[in-house]
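W.,

You were right to be curious about this one. When I first looked at the sequence I had no strong expectations either way, so I just let the prediction run and decided to look at it fresh. Below is the sequence, 127 residues in total, followed by the output.
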Amino acid sequence: MEDTRELRAQGVLADRVDGEPPAILGLSTSEILIVSGVVGLVCLPATLLLGAMFGAVQIALGLTGFLFLGGVYGGSVIFRRLKRGRPIGYYQVRLAILMQRMFGGNKFILRGGSWDLGRSAPMGRKK
């Protein structure tokens, strides 16, 4: 405990060195990039389509900025709730399992039940 106090007195505040530190709104840099990428891919085409429909593309581009900021804030709230009380990288593994179930692959073992070596006869006897 004294080592921690001494390090804090020297200006070292790293409590968890095995993960990325929170940067903005409680999310790490990579998480902010994911949230902003998803929001941008959804927000920009939607507002451009609406702007083209109503003939006001410039207004739609201005609205995109406000919607983008709101989407990043909302995404950070969702990410913080996903992260709460879970180990580092938990939701990345859950997302990888979801992608495996949707598109196939064999990175994770998803089968439950009893496992055996596939031998039904005792050793020494041949079938």
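Here's what jumped out at me. The chain is about 60% helix and 0% strand. And, maybe more interesting for your project: The CA atoms of residues 7 and 105 lie 45 Å apart.

Coffee later to discuss?

I.
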